[in-house]
UniProtKB/TrEMBL annotation:
Localization per record: Cytoplasm; Endomembrane system
Membrane topology value: Single-pass type I membrane protein
Record protein name field: Interleukin-1 receptor accessory protein-like 1-A
Organism: Ataeniobius toweri
Transmembrane segments: none
UniProt key word Acyltransferase: no
Length: 116
């Protein structure tokens, strides 16, 4: 089987110190681009748990927060409206990451994670 390169997986990453307004924290993001081979497994880690961020996944869960993932297949960032439904087979949510087993052309897009 010939494998194609999927180059449009992107996920948000914190860029500066967070600001808080009305009890919500704005982490301000930039984007990481992943280059992926079609047919290979891929793991996208939620950027909220990188480096200097004050909480880890277990702490977030212990205070009742849920990690939600959103996907946009368009170029704009305004269509992150519906959370991703995971089938648990080829695409699954495992703690602070999404797994694609295997990645497919239909997976290309922008991915964002949110704690609620």
């Amino acid at each position: 089987m010939r494998r194609s390169l999927l180059s449009s997986f992107q996920t948000g990453r914190p860029m500066r110190a967070p600001t808080t307004l009305d009890g919500c924290t704005d982490w301000s993001v930039d984007y990481l681009k992943y280059q992926v081979l079609q047919g290979e497994p891929v793991r996208l880690k939620c950027a909220l748990f990188y480096g200097y961020i004050r909480a880890n996944y277990s702490q977030a869960q212990s205070v009742g927060l849920s990690l939600m993932w959103y996907r946009s297949s368009g170029l704009g960032h305004s269509d992150f409206e519906e959370p991703i439904s995971f089938d648990g087979v080829r695409m699954s949510k495992e703690e602070d990451a999404i797994w694609f087993r295997p990645a497919d052309l239909q997976d290309v897009g922008l991915y964002s994670c949110v704690l609620r």
